Amino acid sequence: MIYAIILALVYNGISVSTTNVASLLTANNSKLENKPIAVSPKSLQPSIQQEMNNLKQQLNQEALIRLSLTKQLYSILNDVVEMKKGMGQMESKIHELEKFRNSTLGDDVLAKQLVNLQKDLVNLTSTCKTASHGKEAIAFNAVTSKTLLYDRNTPVNIVFDTVMYDTHGSYSAQSGVFTAPSKGLYIFTWTTLVAAGKILDTELIVKGIRKGLGNCNNLGNPGYENCANTVPVVLEAGDTVNVRSTTGNYVHGYAWSSFKGWRN
Question: Is this structure's pTM higher than 0.70?
Answer without folding.
Answer: no
